[in-house]
């Protein structure tokens, strides 16, 4: 008898729990249909707990619905657990593996995510989002290993303990910032059943003369209501605001709509629906006015897109009927959202359909024609494994703010500042006398194929530094009175990394002989050795750049050997150099060869005296002087005497039609 009563009690309790679970499930479905995911999640959780583990199909379906609520409210840890429960109870749709993989990527676990994307693709090889997710897993480490130069910081003034997102500059001076927030000062008292927080409103902050942002305040006027108001864009003259409005009134639930308001001094007028967005069955949200003021870009799930939320545009004075989809380079089967613009026309948007770090990533889109775009991921540290979106730029600068829910376990959004440090490419150069010292009176002329044309004065040490533009080709000419010009050509890299290009400008004197370094002949021969070519080619270039100059090539020997033999050998060697120059394009009548033998021993200049401590400035390396030195010092002096020099004869060659 007691056993029978016990069975009846268990059966009654099971029936009570089952009925309770069924009721919670029905109520959860109602809340989910209204988009009230926070309330729906609580009901699904109750239904799941009340469903016996033997009812695998119902448990799987309930776990999946619960996971969807958590996914849509960015509650990643709970979404992961719920999707795993759905898989454990054999949820029949393979999409559960892709959603689990998405959450794992958001949780910073790309290796585990990759395994689940592969399972999803085994069931559906044509799942584009799973394909892109798998590609993302392969790219994530590459992005992490090669971060961009952006500097990203969470702003301490603009953020609250609640959600703050979609910042946008609101004045021509870029000293006012509007953004959307669910902070406690927002209008209305009720908590939003979708987010579990207050409905969002517009707030603003103002920057003072020292660059500090003020404590945010609620925007005055009619744009803030007790319902959802957010994600705005301003016209190019900052006088009109386009924004998203969504009535969360349970008595009159409506899709998201685009509203428009006008500025009246510091406050805004009550917003009015843009186009037919309020009376539509589709969602219209996240408006963005183009920099030229001609187009309104926005997000919608209307028919004719590529799946999920797509980016569209219409003429800014038109209606939403006949909107133009931005096409497959931008839109995917996932969600493309939060379009914004730079002044230069670049479009920025967020997507969870393109390969990315996880969640929504920010992308740059550059128009290549009327209908095509080049799209690129901004990489780390702008993008993270979480949602990153709503980027706004401070005028022409590559700095501003964006939103992200990174490092927030509750999935709440916060405002981050970003700045891309300016890429600096510069030339550092030195102008000096060949075989001598700096020339502080020198000038450097700089000409670029971007229109650059400037004259640069050098410093006292003969140096100069000049900033240049990446990807530009430059010609530089070093000049100084009494010296031959010296030309350098270069092209700056197109890289976005800082670069310094170091150039030397050794100027050859017009008034005294100039040593030609590294000229070598075979022993007791006038045959030039191959290693002489580099110096001789440099001389060819110098003569080509100084077309009015004629020179004498002078060859010299040391005192060893017969005087007549030395003079004859040095003459032959000078002629060999002249022949080389002629073969390489220098006119014969600009060149004279002369062999001096040992008749003109080297005179030591200050630079040589600094290099060789046993020599003094103005010392002449005669045979008598050299023989007073030790063997090692004698060989050094003999090497200095065995030299090839050139001397400028005149600088008017070719002028007035003559030679």
Summed up:
The protein is of the alpha+beta class and 659 residues long.
Description:
This protein is α+β, with helices and mostly antiparallel strands. The chain is 26% helix and 28% strand. The strands form 8 sheets. Strands 6, 7, 8, 9 and 10 form a 5-stranded antiparallel beta sheet that branches. The protein has a 4-stranded antiparallel beta sheet with strand order 1-21-20-19, with no helix packed on it.
SSE layout:
Blueprint: H1 2-33, H2 37-49, H3 56-72, H4 76-88, H5 95-106, H6 110-123, H7 128-145, E1 151-154, E2 164-169, E3 176-181, E4 201-206, E5 217-218, E6 228-234, E7 240-246, E8 257-264, E9 267-268, E10 272-273, E11 284-289, E12 295-300, E13 310-315, E14 324-325, E15 336-341, E16 347-351, E17 361-367, E18 373-377, E19 388-393, E20 399-404, E21 414-419, E22 425-433, E23 443-448, E24 453-457, E25 463-468, E26 473-479, E27 486-491, E28 499-507, E29 514-515, H8 533-545, E30 550-556, H9 563-583, E31 591-597, H10 606-611, H11 623-626, H12 631-641, E32 644-650
Parallel strand pairs: 22-28, 30-31
Antiparallel strand pairs: 1-21, 2-3, 3-4, 4-5, 6-7, 7-8, 8-9, 8-10, 11-12, 12-13, 13-14, 15-16, 16-17, 17-18, 19-20, 20-21, 22-25, 23-24, 23-26, 26-27, 29-32, 30-32
Give structural attributes.
5-stranded antiparallel β-sheet, 4-stranded antiparallel β-sheet, 12 helices, alpha+beta, disordered N terminus, 659 residues
């Amino acid at each position: 008898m007691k056993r029978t009563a016990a069975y009846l009690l268990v059966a009654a309790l099971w029936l009570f729990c089952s009925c309770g679970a069924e009721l919670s499930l029905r109520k959860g479905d109602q809340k989910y249909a209204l988009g009230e995911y926070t309330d729906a999640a609580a009901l699904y959780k109750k239904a799941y707990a009340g469903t016996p583990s033997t009812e695998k199909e119902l448990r799987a379906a309930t776990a999946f619905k619960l996971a969807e609520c958590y996914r849509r409210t960015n509650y990643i840890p709970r979404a992961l657990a719920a999707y795993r429960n759905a898989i454990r109870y054999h949820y029949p749709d393979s999409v559960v593996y892709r959603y689990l993989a998405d959450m794992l990527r958001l949780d910073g676990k790309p290796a585990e995510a990759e395994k689940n994307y592969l399972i999803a693709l085994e069931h559906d090889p044509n799942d584009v989002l799973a394909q892109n997710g798998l590609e993302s897993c392969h790219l994530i480490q590459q992005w992490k290993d090669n971060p961009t130069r952006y500097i990203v910081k969470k702003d301490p003034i603009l953020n609250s303990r609640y959600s703050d997102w979609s910042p946008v500059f609101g004045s021509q001076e870029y000293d006012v910032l509007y953004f959307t927030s669910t902070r406690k000062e927002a209008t209305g008292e009720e908590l939003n059943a979708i987010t579990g927080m207050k409905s969002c409103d517009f707030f603003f902050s103002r920057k003072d003369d020292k660059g500090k942002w003020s404590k945010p305040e609620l925007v005055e006027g009619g744009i803030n209501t007790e319902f959802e108001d957010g994600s705005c864009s301003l016209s190019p003259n900052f006088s009109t605001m386009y924004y998203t409005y969504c009535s969360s009134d349970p008595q009159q639930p409506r899709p998201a709509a685009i509203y428009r308001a006008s500025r009246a001094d510091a406050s805004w007028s009550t917003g009015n629906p843009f186009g037919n967005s309020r009376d539509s069955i589709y969602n219209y949200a996240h408006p963005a006015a183009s920099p030229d003021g001609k187009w309104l870009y926005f997000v919608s799930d209307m028919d004719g897109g590529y799946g999920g939320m797509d980016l569209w545009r219409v003429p800014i004075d038109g209606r939403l009927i006949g909107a133009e989809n931005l096409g497959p380079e931008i839109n995917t089967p996932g969600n493309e959202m939060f379009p914004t613009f730079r002044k230069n026309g670049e479009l920025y948007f967020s997507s969870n359909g393109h390969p990315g770090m996880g969640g929504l990533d920010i992308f740059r889109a550059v128009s290549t024609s009327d209908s095509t775009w080049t799209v690129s991921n901004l990489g780390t540290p702008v993008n993270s494994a979480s949602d990153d979106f709503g980027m706004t730029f401070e005028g022409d600068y590559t700095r501003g703010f964006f939103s992200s829910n990174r490092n927030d376990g509750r999935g709440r959004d916060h405002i981050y500042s970003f700045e891309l440090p300016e890429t600096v490419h510069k030339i550092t150069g030195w102008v000096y006398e060949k075989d001598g010292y700096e020339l502080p009176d020198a000038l450097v002329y700089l000409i670029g194929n971007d229109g650059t044309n400037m004259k640069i004065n050098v410093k006292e040490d003969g140096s100069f530094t000049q900033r240049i533009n990446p990807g530009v080709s430059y010609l530089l000419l070093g000049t100084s009175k009494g010296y031959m010009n010296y030309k350098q050509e270069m092209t700056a890299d197109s890289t976005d990394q800082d670069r310094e290009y170091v150039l030397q400008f050794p100027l050859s004197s017009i008034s005294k002989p100039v040593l030609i370094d590294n000229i070598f002949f075979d022993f007791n021969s006038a045959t030039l050795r191959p290693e002489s070519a580099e110096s001789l080619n440099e001389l060819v270039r110098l003569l080509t750049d100084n077309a009015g100059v004629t020179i004498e090539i002078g060859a010299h020997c040391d005192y060893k050997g017969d005087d007549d033999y030395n003079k004859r050998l040095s003459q032959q060697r000078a002629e060999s150099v002249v022949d080389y120059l002629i073969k390489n394009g220098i006119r014969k009548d600009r060149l004279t060869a002369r062999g001096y033998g040992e008749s003109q021993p080297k005179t030591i200049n200050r630079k040589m005296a600094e290099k060789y401590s046993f020599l003094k400035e103005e010392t002449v390396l005669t045979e008598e002087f050299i023989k007073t030195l030790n063997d090692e010092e004698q060989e050094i002096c003999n090497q200095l005497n065995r030299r090839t020099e050139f001397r400028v004869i005149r600088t008017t060659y070719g002028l007035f039609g003559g030679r």
